[in-house]
Amino acid sequence: MTEATGIVGEFLALKEETDADLLAMQCGDFYEFFDEDAETVADELDLKVSQKSSHGSSYPMAGVPVDDLTPYLTALVERGYRVAVADQHETEDGHERAITRVVTPGTLIETTDDDAQYLAAVVREGDGYGVAAADVTTGQFFVTSVGGEDSEGALLTELYKFDPAEVLPGPDVRADEALLDRIRERTTATLTLHAAESFAPGRARHRVREQFGDDTTESVGIDDDEAAIRAAGAVLAYVEETGQGALASVTRLQTYSGSDHVELDATTQRNLELTETMQGDRSGSLFATIDHTVTSAGGRLLSQWLVRPRRSRRELKRRQSAVAALTEAAMAREELREVLSGAYDLERLASRAASGSADAGDLLRVAETLALLPRAAEVIDGRDQLAESPLSEIVAGADRESAADLAAELDEALTDDPPGTVTQGGLFRRGYDDELDEIIEQHEAAREWIETLDQREKGRHGITHLQVDRNKTDGYYIQVGKSEADDVPDEYEPIKTLKNSERFTIPELEEKEREILRLEEQRGDLEYDLFQTLRERVADRATLLQDVGRALAELDALGSLATHAVRNDWTRPELVEGRDLDIRQGRHPVVEQTTSFVPNDLAMDDDRRFLIVTGPNMSGKSTYMRQAALITLLAQIGSFVPAESARVGLVDGIFTRVGALDELAQGRSTFMVEMQELSNILHSATDDSLVILDEVGRGTATYDGISIAWAATEYIHNQVRAKTLFATHYHELTGLADHLERVANVHVAADESDGDVTFLRTVREGPTDRSYGIHVADLAGVPDPVVDRSRDVLERLREEKAIEAKGGGSGEPVQAVFDLSSGSFQHGAAGDEGQATADERATADGGDAAEVGADGATLDPAAEAVLDQLQDLDVNETPPVELMATVQEWQAELDGDDD
Ligand code: ADP
Q1: What are the chain's domains?
Q2: How confident is the model over 337-342, as a mean pLDDT?
Q3: Residues 6+ apart with CB under 8 A from 640
Q4: What is this structure's pTM?
Q5: Ligand 1 atom 10 nearest Cα
Q6: 619 C-alpha to ligand 1 centroid (Å)
Q7: Any known ligand binding at 622?
Q8: Range from 236-245, 256-265, 285-294, 504-513 carrying the lowest mean pLDDT
Q9: How far is the CA of 761 from the centre of ligand 1 (A)?
């Protein structure tokens, strides 16, 4: 390709200046993309590509009209692109183009998505990490630092909670490819490698001071936290450099420490399906189930509560009391929700005002929403229950009078239905500004003069077919019918001849036309100035807007919790000291929506801290355990819970380990992942935590698995001492209850009659007493001798913790014994010759151990092979169709043997 010159050359030169993915360059009334950018944009947005030739070469070109840029830009950025915008400025000798801003996924003000939109920076400092996350659409800004044994895990957990749209890795994070990969895996964020200098300590601190004031780092307690400050400074520098004015709304620095939050690692958030299901769907998540908010800000707050449960009893009681009051005052609750449903997204409007992108409609929406605060306060004050609850503090937290004043000011200023553009006038009411009124009056007088011109001219010249009108090409004109065209006075200057008429103009009309144009321009300019001033006044009140927005969001979130509680008959949990978790007739908050749910009790306390949950596959073990975790979590966001009654000892963390289906899909070893998760729990959980283990050790051979599960149980019981629910199919573990003080057994009951298992969904004390795996094998048609024999094998495994290898076809007495405790065969009565063979074949997990006859020869090989396979087969993990096929194979093998 020859070097491009002209407009394409200018485009390519500007593209060199930016590290953005795409460049939109203004060319008159269009923003154009050229070359590869044109292809990309056309692909993404379904635009037409044309060819632009430039000095013998031809370049793809795609463009959008200037006024339509925002929606296209938003769509591109929401797809993850960073887009630079070059505007055209008039200069004395023509025009100039320069990049004025870069719009990125983390700095997009005009987002169409109601969810929070975080831009996060991550730095490494010593063994820990600093994280800062800003949502420029609402002005929220959080910083924190994480450390500890698994600081990388803690970092990923933070990122998972923010779910950022864009991440800025600091220099040392950038160098760590493995960590970057994990960030990519855990988030959907665009990773942007931003200038390393902005992460430098001195510069970052300076930037933070500039934004939040000199003493803020001290007052929020991060002055010594270099990692947090570096991350915060980098975010601020980046937002500023994108040039969109988005920093103006970021006025409050918020920090949070682990001590008031319940630790919820990313795995647990996913396992408990808080905001999306394991399959990644929103519907079916806890949030989707309990969300009845009527505003997007309320929805954002509620989902923030869910991923950040609290430990402060005071805060939780405050929310509980508010929810309780709202559940009781049904009428007032509905009124309040009705009021709130008229609210716009005030936090976002504040950001738009601050960045200068708000139009007159936006300011009216600000006014309308501000005016709701006094109305909400009225509803609350009007009911004793509500007035005496923390709800009144919430509304009192925002300055009601200032809100009403600003709302009134905006209402008085702006017309009811202002145009979408702010440069062409028509925004302000009469009486707002004298100079404007004067212009409007002159304008109206001029229009009036024109509107009555036809009457005057008809009368003066006695012409009947005369009218005054305007169009784009001719401007204002006087039109006279053909028959009278010759009767017009001399001053009528012809401008156009039509089929049936003639068009004229006169000097006074031309004069008025110029006056009107001048006045319209003056009006547009003046109104634009006035509007900017007004918008700045609103921007100056960003904090007020955020306070009011926050108060309305909180009322909405609490109203939502109350609504869900009432509709689903939830109850207020008692928050207690200590480790009790005492739930009567509890239900799973999500499952109860779609199933006729069988409620269950759960009783745990200091002395009964570890429950081993057994029961057939699909009986409801997982549901029971998740229910316990979700009730605890709901209690710790201040919500009511699905139970007849509940006493909940507050926890400092919830840890779960459940079947790792998604990791399997990602091609990671399930067993490795399982063990990593277990390891994390054993390291991180404390005696104040809640631990949910849904099967441990399944990913490996049976004896490995049992051993790990056994040891983990002991360790949690003795060392970690966390409140734990452990579902296992290793029946052997139930015996631990006899030896470990605080361990107890419960099981999910199932009933069996006529060869059918009926799940009762009821949880009872004690362990299960049977193996349902073999039962399923029986139901599936495995030949009776195999089923009977496997029952026998199992019986012995349980009772004697040892299994003898049965000799010969005639079922002769014991020859070799596989001892569970040693994991190898003991050769009791077996002949010496047999020993070598047996030892060779026996392995630690027993899976490959062959049955050995008296003479040392392998006996009944087909049946023995089938038995081995049966023992190894994991019924729970095998799809029914495969199970049937396997059984058919066995039957064929056994048949073959008979021949
Ligand atoms: P497990 O963990 O024992 O394999 P699950 O907890 O996955 O079993 O539950 C199996 C099915 O039973 C699920 O579809 C679940 O919705 C349903 N279920 C579980 N507990 C109950 C209950 N108490 N009442 C009604 N249905 C339940």
Answers
A1: 6-103 (3.40.1170.10), 119-257 (3.30.420.110), 291-425+537-567 (1.10.1420.10), 574-775 (3.40.50.300), 782-896 (no CATH)
A2: 96
A3: 320, 323, 324, 327, 561, 562, 564, 565, 570, 571, 572, 573, 634
A4: 0.78
A5: 618
A6: 5
A7: yes
A8: 256-265
A9: 7
